[in-house]
Amino acid sequence: MNQPTPAIVAQSAVRRLPRVALLLLCAAYLLPGLVGRGPWKSADITAFGYMSELARTTEGIARWFDPMLLGLRPETLALVPYWIGAWAIKIAPSWLNPDLAVRIAFAFLLWGTFTATWYAVYYLARTARAQPVAFAFGGEARPTDYARAIADGGLLALIACLGLAQLGHETTPALAQLFFASYLFYGVAALPYRRAGPVLALFVGTLGITLSGAPTVGLALAIGSTLYIAYERRRAARSATESDDDGPGYTLGALATMAGVTVLAAVLVFSLRLAQWKLTLSYGSLFSDVRGQAKLLLWFTWPVWPLAIWTLWRWRRQLNARHVALPFWFALVPLAATWTTDFSDRSLMLALPAFATLAAFALPTFRRSAAALVDWFNVLFFSGLALLGWIYWIAMQTGVPPKPAASVTRLVPGFVPEFSPIAVVLAAAATIAWCWLVRWRTGRHRAALWKTLVLPAGGTALCWMLLMTLWLPPIDYARSYVPQVHAVTERVGQPSCVAELALSRAHIAALRYHGQLNLQPLLLGTNCPWLLVSPETIERLHTIIPFDQWRFSGTLRRPSSPADDLLLYQKITPQ
Predict the structure, then answer these.
(1) For residue 33, which of 506, 476, 558 has the smallest C-alpha distance?
(2) What is the mean pLDDT of residues 98-117?
């Protein structure tokens, strides 16, 4: 017998969120940051470097299965993300910058993540155990309308996640992993209701995440999904009728499909030794860095983690139900990867669709007073952030007030402010839209289930829009290698080649793309007139470089980060 549901929702509360408004919100979140900037440090430019190398390789198809950047394999030995970026560069018209072409391709991945998450939440909310209480005289929410409202809330919750803002707009394997993980999530959720689409999503999601640098996470998600489908079938077999229990259930064909996909993923993982690519267990830090990991979890998944915890509490009698158990598993596996790998934030990003799903199922259990508290907090929080953004931007442009202006100068030394009318108009429009949204949300009108998450999603989109319009020039200056590369090219010009010693992958990619420099490893033997060296080798530099052949020419710094210094040496020409 089913436990009582904690959801109490009337039909009047499941009004549909206008599709135009939802699409505009997604566009306002996706589009800012596409143009007006280059690849950022350090994972962004590094991944782009591998994509550029693949796009211009002439070594045949074998190189596509072994990406290289000046003889270095990537730290995240993914394949599919680099293929996507390389093909975006190859098919882009000549007038389109290669980095912009890659960003456009990866923007479609984020859009696909939004779509998959919406449909996953929708089908989970369709299950009988997720439905609200049936009223004695009718008037409770209809199943499809209720599921649509919950799905709208899930998508708003995903957009509201703070951790998605920057990483979701970079062209790294992490975004591809998020895309494929969300499609695997959708496939498992929708499999009882559809066949072709979910089956295709299972194959694309499982194999895609396996070949995108997260094979262990993908395999764990697939194994857990297979076991859960088997459990659901066994539980349904014990029930008197499946329809009275949880709606449409998993068929034997669904179990066979999920098991087959899992076996295929396991074959790829172990035959290609993919598990060695990503999984780097660090058991010592598992307990020593608890505080840091907890801080990451709290801010990265804000504001959905309190709602997710509330869902687990309020639905605690249905923890084995499909709408709770599946998102819990899809959140738990990336969370475990966060604690056991060196890619904490990027591993945690894979859990955001599941966290957003759990947060969405908190909505039908909220009291009006709690929803009002969430609303006012978001009004004050995001309005305050927007106000600070405008004040500091005015100070950067005019020097008044002096203290904020001095703070900006200290953070981005050497940056010359520039005024962009288009950026100001877009930022002003976003601010006006936010004011209208606050007025609408705090007005007196009929309640809607998704309204609690409108302000968090709108506030996050507003802040991202302000960052990518008003603050894009200083942010790009601070996070780009362009100033440092320009300093290098001003010193060396365009020589036939430049030797390098122990440079990072990010520096190599930036020097090759922004400076068009022909880098060659020093240790392989070169006859280049210039040498760039990483300061990390300074202690053993005298044993590597014959100083009777090289003369120190200077230290080239990235203005906003002294940790990215480069040492420049010039070859001594015999007299």
Answers:
(1) 476
(2) 97
- Cα–Cα distance, 452 to 434 (Å, whole number): 15
280 confidence band (pLDDT: 50, 70, 90):
very low
Cis before 67? omega within 30: no
Could you tell me the strand order of the sheet in which 519-521 lies?
519-521, 498-501, 530-533, 561-571, 550-558
Mean pLDDT computed over every residue of the chain: 90
95-104: average pLDDT: 96
According to the model, what pLDDT value does residue 26 have? 96
CA distance 324 to 311: 8
**CA 182 to each of CA 120, 167, 303: distance values in angstroms, whole numbers, following the listed order:** 8, 15, 19
Mean pLDDT of 415-419: 91
Would you say 51 and 102 are in contact if contact means Cβ atoms under 8 Å apart?
yes
Q: What is the DSSP string of 297-309?
A: HHHHTTTHHHHHH
pLDDT level of residue 444 (50, 70, 90 thresholds)? low
How many Å apart are CA 572 and CA 575, to the nearest integer? 9
- In the predicted structure, residue 281 carries a pLDDT above the cut 50: no
Neighbours of 228 (CB within 10 A): 18
Torsion of CA 226, 229, 234, 236, to 10 degrees: 180
Structure tokens at 276: 């060695």
| Burial classification of residue 44, based on how many CB atoms lie within 10 Å of its CB (0-12 exposed, 13-18 middle, 19 or more buried) | buried
Q: What pLDDT does residue 37 have?
A: 93
Q: Which of 37, 42, 44 is nearest to 503 (CA)?
A: 42
3-state secondary structure of 559: coil
**15: which DSSP letter?**
P
Residue 246 and residue 236 in contact, taking contact as beta carbons nearer than 8 Å: yes
Residues 6+ apart with CB under 8 A from 191: 198, 199, 202, 229, 250, 254, 257, 258
Helices (H), 161-251: 164-167, 173-190, 196-210, 215-238, 243-246
User: Which residues are within 8 A (CB) of 561 and not within 5 positions of it... i.e. 6 or more apart?
Assistant: 41
